[in-house]
Amino acid sequence: MIEIQNLSKIYKTKNGEVNGVDNVTLSVEKGEIYGIVGYSGAGKSSLLRCINLLERPTSGHLTVDGVDLTVLRGEPLRLARLKIGMIFQHFYLISQKTVYENIAFALKAAKVPAKERIDRVEKLLEMVGLSDKRDVYPSQLSGGQKQRVAIARALANNPKVLLCDEATSALDPTTTKSILNLLKKINQELKITIVLITHEMNVVKEICNRMAIMQEGRVVEEGAVYNIFASPKTELAKEFIASVVSYDIPETIANSCEGPLVKVTFRGKVAGEGVISDTLQQYQVKGNFLHGSIEYIQDLPLGIFVMELKGAKEEIKQALKYIEERDAQVEVLRDGV
Ligand SMILES: Nc1ncnc2c1ncn2[C@@H]1O[C@H](COP(=O)(O)OP(=O)(O)OP(=O)(O)O)[C@@H](O)[C@H]1O
After folding, report:
1. Comparing 143 with 268, which gets the higher pLDDT?
2. Would the CB of 18 count as within 6 Å of ligand 1?
3. CA distance 254 to 199
4. Which atom number of ligand 1 is nearest to the Cα of residue 38?
5. Of 125, 131, 174, 234, which has the fewest beta carbons less than 10 angstroms from its beta carbon?
6. Range from 111-120, 157-166, 262-271, 310-319 that averages highest in pLDDT
7. Which atom of ligand 1 is nearest to the CA of 21?
8. Domain range spanning residue 152?
9. 10 lines ligand 1 (CB under 6 A)
10. Residue 244 falls within a domain, yes or no?
11. Is 9 in the pocket of ligand 1 (CB under 6 A)?
């Protein structure tokens, strides 16, 4: 649905050139929810804004639904942009207009006849769960409700793609969850492809299928969210994952361990097969659990356990071999003393 090839965005400032996006290549498939994460200044907004040409890329290629947007200008570009909705952290609703008028405004701009507008706005309000707020002004709404109005407005012209710029960053955790559920519903029911940028890894874990991690304008890691959580390659990916699930053992605890410290990772249904208890039953080994959890990413379990193993060296070796044979990943974090 979105093909980005060698895309760069260079800003010219008084103090010289700044590389907002540096030679990024990635593709977003039709119907997926794609997350782009990175710290402040990584280039997320610049990249997102290039997708609908709010920023014109300095070089590179960009197609959305088969259309090369970079060659369009004027009316053809305006029409192509109608197929790309966008929502923002700070909603950007028109304060002097009611909820109804805010949404109808997007339809009016697209020259939808007045009669059709009424029906369409009613449907959109129902979709985002705000039919009862039709005639109130934005100042009378909570942050979550304002974002729902912004989502309805972004969907007004039946876009194929929805771009979300830190859409939940100004919301509390409960409201964030409800907005993420709404985005999931929109993705599934309306088959809209979603690209979101965020600095919160839990947002990506909650709803994205695939993701890219950006740093200094470049994509440093990319792939299925599950795979990145299960085996991150870069230090940056590990840092972002640690902000959601951390398996660090305090130094004092690690130092008091005599046996080897191992991290065992179970992917998918293996997580529920009781591999560790089978191992401890079959071998003369004791396991001292120091950390452990089963996370659910896109409803697929990912189990990670850190434990100290106690027993004879050979017996521990055999036990670890057995765990690996049962399709789990074993990483020895520290040898025993
Ligand atoms: N209009 C602009 N003019 C000059 N430099 C810019 C402009 N917009 C962004 N930049 C620079 O481009 C780089 C990437 O910024 P960008 O806003 O895309 O990052 P970000 O990851 O979205 O960060 P944040 O989460 O803080 O918004 C930064 O160094 C920033 O200072």
Report:
1. 143
2. yes
3. 31
4. 21
5. 174
6. 157-166
7. 14
8. 2-237
9. no
10. no
11. no
User: Tell me, what amino acid is at 1?
Assistant: M
Say yes or no: 172 and 221 in one domain. Answer: yes
**Ligand 1 center to 188 CA (angstroms):** 32
Does the pLDDT value for residue 172 go beyond 80? yes
Token code pair at residue 220: 């440093």
C-beta 276 within 6 A of ligand 1: no
One domain, residues 205 and 263: no
Share of the chain above pLDDT 70, in %: 98
Q: Are residues 270 and 217 in the same domain?
A: no
Give yes or no for residue 78 having a pLDDT over 70. Answer: yes
**Ligand 1: which atom is nearest the Cα of residue 55?**
1
β-bridge pairing 261-267 and 328-334: antiparallel
Sheet strands side by side (includes 193-198)? 84-88, 161-165, 193-198, 33-37, 210-215, 218-224
Check which CATH number belongs to the domain holding 273 and give it.
3.30.70.260
Distance from the alpha carbon of residue 306 to the mean position of ligand 1, in angstroms: 39
Given CA atoms 8, 12, 17, 19 in this order, what sign does their dihedral have? negative
Both tokens of 184, joined, read 């999931």
Probe residue for ligand 1, chosen from 22, 44, 200 as the CB with the greatest number of ligand atoms within 8 Å: 44
Write the residue with the smallest CA distance to atom 16 of ligand 1.
43
- Is the whole model's pTM more than 0.90, yes or no? no
Q: If you write DSSP's letter for every residue of 191-250 in order, what string do you get?
A: --EEEEEES-HHHHHHH-SEEEEEETTEEEEEEEHHHHHHS--SHHHHHHHHTT------
Distance 235 CA to ligand 1 centre (A): 22
The ipTM estimated for the assembled molecules is: 0.95
Both 57 and 139 in one domain: the answer is yes
